[in-house]
Design goal:
With 625 residues, the protein is α+β, with helices and mostly antiparallel strands. It has 3 domains: 440 residues, FAD/NAD(P)-binding domain; 97 residues, tRNA uridine 5-carboxymethylaminomethyl modification enzyme MnmG/GidA (Arc Repressor Mutant, subunit A, Orthogonal Bundle), CATH 1.10.10.1800; 52 residues, GidA associated domain, C-terminal subdomain (DNA polymerase, domain 1, Orthogonal Bundle), CATH 1.10.150. The strands form 4 sheets. Strands 10, 11, 12, 13, 14, 15, 16, 17 and 18 form a 9-stranded antiparallel beta sheet that branches. Strands 1, 2, 6, 7, 8, 9 and 19 form a 7-stranded mixed beta sheet that branches. A hairpin with a 6-residue loop joins strand 15 and strand 16. Helix 1 packs parallel to helix 9, helix 11 runs antiparallel to helix 12 and helix 12 crosses helix 16. The longest helix has 32 residues. The protein starts with a strand and ends with a helix. The model has no long low-confidence stretch (mean pLDDT 93).
């Protein structure tokens, strides 16, 4: 007799792994079903985690007690903090990883998670009774019953791959697609669509002439994703390499456009706007004579390189001819060409903010099934779906993050409120409260919330309290300690800022835009002695936190006040209170959109495309506000 589960997770990608781990760690009896147990959290595309806004999401997953940050830190072969020339709201961590060890570490975590069972199979049917999911049926005919199910099928739902005019069914190169679930859910009334993504060619590093390329080394500073200070990589660091396309490359590529499934009508679905294929770049940016490319190592030892920026579905021989026109790749051999993949997704406006579907109770969607693209966006949805599935089946309150609390809150609210018409990717520009959602303070924002749920462990709260205590102590020291010109003028002159004529408080020097707190730690003896109390493995983290507090406290406070003002709209519940079609004082478009989306709050209604501030004012008047 097979066991009965609280939560079944379908799919072992980034969303599925986070969902299964979260549900199990919270205490739910959980089953994770995946097609291949050797490929948990497989890096199907580039071997990197993080980037603009994505790095912030990974730190939020970590602060909640998820694993993406930990696994990344253990498998990092290069780390860079992007956008350091801008303000801290824009700083975004990014790491190159050993893709093979990444999956290996994830398997180790899952196999050592209590309450979690693993099963290698495909799911072909959902058990549904009276609009409530009751379990799944697998490809080999096994019936698993459950109180909730989370679908994280990635690109496998009716996946179809394209290389030139060749088509192959599958969810990833060399792997079968998943069938039947889309048809079942469509028959049940779900709206589905097709999206496209792609991946570049993989190159044999032994055939690359690195002497013609520009080396991009790892940052010297100690950066990481997890707030757990002892998580780190023991792997050898490796560089990335930069090269460019040119007009000869473009001619070779354009010669194959007649056989490109994107331009001969074979592919009808829409691809990611912000990660376009090389074909799309040539058409969209036809005035450009070159495009930047990155050669990224796939692991610490492998000779395989990923050609970032060269995603393509052109015939393999066209790809190879074009590659041979790129500086440094004149004699390159390839392991496999780039390809495009089409797959089914479900319109995410059919979800609640918990990621539970509106049509079937206790059924949750997470990841690319919701129209997103990217490991980080998937992992974020996975952990939230895992938390909420556990909460519901145990009769506990739903867990929702607001837009001013996390990028994860922005991501889910955008999906559920606005829907998608192309693969959704997170950017800092999507968040209206960026300075509150920095990568350095995700633990301060989220770890206590997660600890109260029972997911984040006591260790994280202890570390958080230590961090805040030490940050505040350092802040008080620099606020009260006076420094004389003789001790700092040489630093000020070196940094191109006006030297002192008389003593000032140390905080006044740190407030200068040209000066970093790290410039002062070695030259002011009392300050240096004071800082010895900070653990070495947290030194950079805590001092960075102090510096941001000093330099940006005014901006942070102002944005908090704005967020507090708008958060009041989130507390005005309008769920089921209006027949929008009968309200003639709002626009026709607003009536249609509000009827379709049925927002729960005024705040959510205000973010629906086509609903104007005037329409919101009418609703507020009708509410007696």
């Amino acid at each position: 007799m097979l066991p009965y589960y609280d939560v079944i997770v379908v799919g072992g990608g980034h969303a599925g792994c986070e969902a299964a781990a979260a549900a199990a760690n919270l205490g739910s009896k959980t089953l994770l079903i995946t097609m291949d147990m050797m490929k948990y959290a497989q890096m199907s595309c580039n071997p990197a985690i993080g980037g603009i806004a994505k790095g912030q999401i990974v730190r939020e997953i970590d602060a909640l007690g998820g694993y993406m940050g930990i696994v990344t830190d253990r498998t990092t072969i290069q780390f860079r903090m992007l956008n350091r020339s801008k303000g801290p709201a824009m700083w975004s961590p990014r790491a190159q990883c050993d893709r093979f060890k990444f999956s290996e570490f994830w398997r180790d975590i899952l196999e050592n998670t209590e309450n979690l069972d693993l099963w290698q199979d495909t799911v072909v049917n959902l058990l549904i009774d009276n609009k409530q999911v009751k379990g799944v049926i697998t490809g080999v005919g096994v019936e698993f019953q459950a109180r909730s199910v989370i679908l994280t099928n990635g690109t496998f739902l009716n996946g179809l791959m394209h290389i030139g005019r060749s088509k192959m069914k599958g969810g990833r190169i060399g792997e079968n697609a998943s069938y039947f679930i889309s048809d079942q859910l469509t028959d049940f009334g779900f709206k589905t669509g097709r999206l496209k993504t792609g991946t570049p060619v993989r190159i044999d590093g032994r055939t690359i002439d690195f002497s013609k390329l520009t080396e991009q080394e790892s940052d010297i500073d100690v950066y990481k994703f997890s707030y757990l200070p002892d998580e780190k990589s023991e792997l050898k660091k490796r560089s990335c390499w930069i090269t460019y396309t040119n007009e000869e490359v473009h001619k070779e590529l354009e010669a194959g456009f007649d056989d490109s499934p994107m331009y001969n009508g074979t592919i009808q679905s829409i691809g990611p706007r912000y990660c376009p294929s090389i074909e799309s770049k040539l058409v969209t940016f036809s005035e450009k004579t070159q495009h930047q490319l990155f050669l990224e190592p796939e692991g610490q030892k492998t000779i395989e390189y990923y050609l970032n920026g060269f995603s393509s579905s052109l015939p393999w021989d066209v790809q190879l001819k074009a590659i041979h026109k790129i500086q440094g790749l004149e004699n390159a051999k390839i392991f496999r060409p780039g390809y495009a993949i089409e797959y089914d997704y479900f319109e995410p406006t059919q979800l609640h903010h918990t990621l539970e579907t509106k049509l079937i109770s206790n059924l949750y969607f997470a990841g690319q099934i919701n129209g997103t693209t990217g490991y980080e966006e998937a992992g974020a949805q996975g952990i939230m779906a895992g938390i909420n599935a556990h909460q519901k089946v145990h009769g506990k309150d739903e867990f929702i993050l607001q837009r001013d609390e996390a990028y994860i809150g922005v991501l889910i609210d955008d999906l559920v409120t606005k829907g998608v018409d192309e693969p959704y990717r997170m950017f800092t520009s999507r968040a209206e409260y960026r300075i509150l959602l920095r990568q350095d303070d995700a633990d301060i924002r989220l770890s206590r919330k997660s600890f109260e749920l029972g997911l984040a462990r006591k260790e994280r709260i202890d570390l958080l309290e230590e961090k805040v205590k030490m940050r505040d102590e350092v802040f008080e020291f620099v606020r009260n300690f006076s420094v004389k010109p003789v001790f700092v003028n040489h630093i000020l002159e070196e940094k191109g800022t006006t030297p002192l004529k008389q003593g000032v408080k140390l905080i006044d020097i740190i407030l200068r835009p040209q000066i970093s707190i790290f410039d002062l730690v070695n030259d002011i003896t009392p300050f240096k002695k004071f800082l010895k109390a900070i653990p070495e493995n947290r030194f950079y983290e805590i001092l960075e936190s102090v510096e941001i507090l000093i330099k940006y406290s005014g901006y942070i406070e102002r944005e908090k006040n704005i967020a507090d003002k708008y958060s009041r709209l989130e507390n005005i519940n309008i769920d089921g209170k209006f027949d929008y079609a009968s309200i003639k004082s709002i626009s026709t478009e607003a009536r249609q959109k509000l009827t379709k989306h049925q927002p729960k709050t005024i705040g959510q209604a205000s973010r629906i495309s086509g609903v104007s501030p005037a329409d919101i004012n009418v609703l507020l008047v009708l509410m007696g506000r």
